[in-house]
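Final report, results section. Input specification for complex C-07:
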Amino acid sequence: MYFSNNKYSAYSGWPTELMENMIHNCTENTSRANRTCHLDDFDFDSRDGADKTVPYNGFIPDETVGPAVSSLPLKHHYHLQLVQHLVQLEPRVYHLLYHRQMDVLHLHRHLSLLQLNRRLIVVILQSIGIL
Amino acid sequence: MVNPGACSSHVHSVYGNANFGATITPEMLLDDNEDGDWRDTNDKYNQTTSAFIPNLSMYWAPSLYILWEDMYHLVPSFARPYYRITLRGDGDASRVNPYPPFLRMIVGDASRKTAWEPWETDRDNIRWTLTTINRVDTDYIDHGDWTYLIDNLDLVGQSNQVEMKLHFPECLAVNADGTPITSSDNYRDHATYITGWDRNRNSYCPEDFPYQIPMLDLEVRYDLDHMREILPLDVVNNVRNWRLSTSDDSGAGGHADFVR
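Structure output:
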């Protein structure tokens, strides 16, 4: 996904203008000969001491967080353990699995309604032999 | 990134942009200043932990613990991101591009929990060093886990920090219109390391990944000296007591995530 939208391309993360300047004009954090490196305008040690702390009082996203899942590639027996764990956590998953004659899209939509992580849904579908 | 909207399976230490959450969105990376002027650092000190305020990127890596008396003790850490550019001798940087917005990359294998075997050379460029004591003498093939540190505990005892040094890829795949691809399902397939100089194509990057960007060289430093103040020296210096948050006791599971 590439953002051609100016809002993102101009401001996000590393400023594009700054990185372009670094590529063409900087060496070892300072200006190449006869060039102007923007890094020269900034203090790299501006956060010495207590100023290095960012207070945890900023915006906190009001987000729904699902159950902990492994980010690791799961082997088959882990799939089964995960499903068993999910069934314990979420009775509605058991209900869906019991009625496994439903088609993939139908089941996928129901799992999505439970706000489960997309990877978890894939794992569930794989573990019961649908994917 | 791997499990958006869910809790990760392991604890991470997060550096850089402070707008962190269970799901990472492009909006989180935006400059808080309404004028959007990246030079304006006023009121931006709380948007990032970076010492270089205009850098609003995010970096995160597994936390390191020391196991002692059945308790895991968190080792404080910080990170130093370096951006290095691979150039020909003539210094011509015209082939190198800035990072595309919302570029996402992961290096390393979080599932790895055993030391690398000698024949396992096809892997990401990640190594463990004792910073200035041995950084120049290390490489990712022979120092990609803690085996050599276990064999040199006397050296570990001399070091203030242990460093996980991660080289990120510097070549991106492109769309049909030539724009760079900024992510992929596994956050890896859209990027690759440089190969060698191709004089026919005038490029360091392979044909399938033609978009060259600066290499992110991320140093994650874990503060052993701090731990020596609160735990017995022989416990801290014994690498066998170290655990990555993935429960890896080999160091081979070192990894990191990056979002521009």
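The first strand of chain B starts at residue 12 and ends at 16. The radius of gyration of chain B is 19 Å. This concludes the modelling results for the funded period.
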